[in-house]
Amino acid sequence: MSMNDFWIAPSILAADFARLGEEVTDVLDAGADLIHFDVMDNHYVPNLSVGPAVLSSLRAHGVTAKMDVHLMVKPVDRIIGDFINAGADMITFHPEASDHVDRSLSLIRDAGLQCGLVLNPATPLSVLDYTLEGLDMVLVMSINPGFGGQQFLPSTLGKIEAIRRRIDAVKPGTRLEVDGGVKTDNIRRIKDAGADTFVAGTAIFGTTDYRQVIDEMRRELSAP
Question: Cα–Cα distance between 123 and 217 in angstroms, integer?
């Protein structure tokens, strides 16, 4: 893969919400490829974050970058339409949150957006058996979802490798995203396991120099 194939996706969950528009603009100016939008409902996961109105506000603020919406909500179908209308570019959700996974995926695809599934650390790979051909992205959680700032689970590296093999065999070009504890000191290992899209929250927004961190991540990704 070339460097252009690797995407860094800062998660606004770790941003300063009092100045969110400015934060998103700053991190994009620092070299981020897209914005990761974590949506929590205090039901599927034990936390509450942001809704479609926040995404709409960022669009109104002038943010034109791709918005990668990760829905940690149950049930999921009702809110998919809200985020489509708010200006999402891609929407991923957890199969456990849908009674009919293919129907939920169709809601996203039929609106012209990219769609994907999210696998928790304990979610079996069998959920990809009948869905992978229709996915634009597979998101691997390298933490248990619901809270920012957690440590990366090394046991998920094997899962990333297994999913990469499936993608290469079934639908090359599908993005393989990793979310949870991604930092400059482990991003190379995650890339070597097969990931091409990297969500980072506190590792970026928890610093005073976003460009320095993103540049360092890119150096790690370019290392042999």
Answer: 28
Q: Of 16, 38, 129, 196, which one is the catalytic site residue? A: 38
The two structure tokens encoding residue 92: 């991923």
Respond yes or no: is residue 38 known to be catalytic.
yes
Distance from the first to the final alpha carbon of the chain: 11
Q: Closest Cα partner for 196 from 214, 174, 166?
A: 174
Catalytic choice (41, 68, 179, 196):
179
Report CA dihedral (128, 81, 200, 164) to the nearest 10 degrees: 20
- pTM, full prediction: 0.95
26 is catalytic: no
Cis, bond preceding 75 (omega within 30 deg of 0): yes
Strands of 175-179's sheet, edge to edge? 7-10, 197-200, 175-179, 137-141, 114-119, 90-93, 67-72, 35-40
Domains of the chain: residue spans and CATH: 3-222 (3.20.20.70)
- pLDDT tens-place values along the chain, 224 residues long: 455 699 999 999 999 999 999 999 999 999 999 999 999 998 888 888 999 999 999 999 999 999 999 999 999 999 999 999 999 999 999 999 999 999 999 999 999 999 999 999 999 999 999 999 999 999 999 977 656 667 888 999 999 999 999 999 999 999 999 998 999 999 999 999 999 999 999 999 999 999 999 999 999 999 88
